[in-house]
C-alpha cells in the first residue's frame, strides 16, 4: 500500500519537479552568478556580524546613548546578529551547491530561524517606533509605560509572537518546513491538508506592524510640525519669558525627532529590502525568472547589515560613540604615554645640552621592556 501512495504524490504534483529541473538547468548555465551571490552573502554576513556586534558593544559602553530606545536597538542588533551567524552561512553554501537541504533537521531549523528573525526584527522596529511616538506625542505617559518590567515584557512578547507562531509549522501541524523546489531552498510548504501558515505570518508579522508604524509616524509628524510652527512664532515674538517652559518642551520634542528620523530610516530600509521578494513571489510564483528571485534573496540578507550603517550616518551621538569605542585601545595607549613623555621632559630639561646617547639612556630606564 505504501508504493501506490508514493506514486500518487509524485504524479499529483508535477509542477515542483518541472520547476526543479528549470532551477537546476539555470544553476548549471550560470555558475559565475551563483559564485557572485555566495560572495555577496558572505560579505553581508561579515559586515553584519562586525556591525551588529559593535552596535551592541557601543551602547553597553556609552552611557550617553544608553536609554530605553537603545534597549530595543540592542534587541534588534542581537536578532540581526543571530541571522548572520545561524542563517546566512547555510544560504551562502546553497549558492555554492552544497546540499544541506537533504537533512530534515537543518531543513526545519534554518527556515524556522529565518522566518522568526524576520518577524521579530520588524516587531522590534515597531516597539522602537511606539517608544518614539509616546515620547513625542504622549510624554506624560512615558515614565508610566516604560518601566523595566514592562520593557522586558515587550521584548519577550515580540519573541513569543514571532517564534511561537512558527512552532505549529515546525511540528508539521500548520504547514511544514520542507524543501521547496520552486524556490530552490527550504521554506514553508503546505501540509497534506493543504494548509500553510504563510498568509497568517504575512498579516501578523508584516502587514499589522507596518500599519502600526505608519500610524505612529503620522502622529509624530503632526506633533513635530505643530511644534516647529510654535517655535517660529516664539522666535518672532519678543515676550519669551512666560513661555520658557513650553519652549524647552518644544526643543526637546524636536531633539527627539532626530532620533525618530533614524528609526524611520531603519523601517524604510527594512521594507525596501523585503519588498522585492514579496513582489517576485507574487508576480512570478512559478519562478520563471530565477535571477530576480536571487536578487530578492540578496536584498533580504542585506537588511541584516544596514542598521549599524544607518546609526553611524544619521546620528551624531552614535557616530561619536562608535569612534570612541574603535579608538579606545589607541587612545588608552596614548593617554598612558602622555605622563611618560612629560616625565622625560622634566628629567631632561635641567641638563641643558643633551646628546642623543643621554636621551636613549633615559628612555631605556623608563621603558617597560
From TrEMBL:
Q: Which GO terms describe its molecular function?
A: G protein-coupled receptor activity
Alphabetical keyword list? Cell membrane, G-protein coupled receptor, Membrane, Receptor, Transducer, Transmembrane, Transmembrane helix
Compartments where located: Cell membrane
- Residue intervals passing through the bilayer: 33-60, 72-92, 112-137, 149-171, 200-224, 259-279, 291-314
How is the protein disposed in the membrane?
Multi-pass membrane protein
Q: Which residues form a coiled coil?
A: none
Family membership, please give it: Belongs to the G-protein coupled receptor 1 family.
Q: Which PANTHER family match?
A: B2 BRADYKININ RECEPTOR/ANGIOTENSIN II RECEPTOR (PTHR24228), G-PROTEIN COUPLED RECEPTOR MOODY (PTHR24228:SF63)
Name this polypeptide is given: G-protein coupled receptors family 1 profile domain-containing protein
Amino acid at each position: 500500500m505504501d508504493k501506490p501512495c508514493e506514486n500518487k504524490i509524485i504524479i499529483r504534483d508535477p509542477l515542483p519537479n518541472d520547476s526543479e529541473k528549470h532551477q537546476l538547468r539555470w544553476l548549471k548555465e550560470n555558475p559565475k552568478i551563483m559564485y557572485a551571490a555566495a560572495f555577496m552573502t558572505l560579505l553581508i554576513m561579515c559586515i553584519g556580524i562586525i556591525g551588529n556586534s559593535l552596535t551592541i558593544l557601543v551602547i553597553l559602553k556609552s552611557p550617553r546613548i544608553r536609554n530605553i530606545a537603545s534597549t530595543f536597538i540592542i534587541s534588534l542588533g542581537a536578532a540581526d546578529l543571530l541571522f548572520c551567524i545561524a542563517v546566512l552561512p547555510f544560504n551562502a553554501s546553497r549558492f555554492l551547491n552544497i546540499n544541506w537541504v537533504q537533512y530534515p533537521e537543518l531543513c526545519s531549523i534554518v527556515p524556522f530561524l529565518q522566518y522568526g528573525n524576520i518577524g521579530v526584527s520588524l516587531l522590534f522596529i515597531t516597539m522602537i517606533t511606539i517608544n518614539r511616538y509616546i515620547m513625542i506625542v504622549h510624554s506624560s505617559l512615558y515614565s508610566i509605560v516604560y518601566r523595566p518590567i514592562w520593557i522586558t515584557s515587550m521584548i519577550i512578547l515580540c519573541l513569543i509572537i514571532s517564534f511561537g507562531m512558527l512552532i505549529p509549522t515546525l511540528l508539521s501541524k500548520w504547514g511544514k518546513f520542507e524543501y521547496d523546489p520552486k524556490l530552490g531552498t527550504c521554506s514553508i510548504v503546505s501540509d497534506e491538508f493543504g494548509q500553510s501558515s504563510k498568509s497568517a505570518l504575512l498579516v501578523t508579522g508584516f502587514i499589522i506592524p507596518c500599519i502600526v508604524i505608519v500610524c505612529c509616524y503620522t502622529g509624530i509628524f503632526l506633533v513635530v510640525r505643530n511644534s516647529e510652527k510654535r517655535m517660529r512664532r516664539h522666535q518672532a515674538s519678543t515676550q519669551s519669558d512666560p513661555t520658557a517652559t513650553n519652549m524647552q518642551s518644544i526643543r526637546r520634542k524636536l531633539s527627539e525627532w532626530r532620533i525618530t528620523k533614524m528609526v524611520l530610516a531603519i523601517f524604510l530600509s527594512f521594507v525596501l529590502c523585503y519588498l522585492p521578494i514579496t513582489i517576485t513571489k507574487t508576480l512570478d510564483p512559478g519562478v520563471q525568472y530565477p535571477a530576480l528571485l536571487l536578487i530578492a534573496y540578496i536584498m533580504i540578507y542585506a537588511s541584516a547589515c544596514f542598521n549599524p550603517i544607518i546609526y553611524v550616518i544619521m546620528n551624531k551621538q552614535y557616530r561619536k560613540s562608535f569612534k570612541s569605542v574603535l579608538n579606545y585601545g589607541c587612545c588608552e595607549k596614548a593617554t598612558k604615554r602622555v605622563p611618560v613623555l612629560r616625565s622625560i621632559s622634566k628629567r631632561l630639561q635641567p641638563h641643558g645640552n643633551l646628546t642623543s646617547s643621554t636621551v636613549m639612556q633615559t628612555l631605556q630606564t623608563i621603558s617597560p621592556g
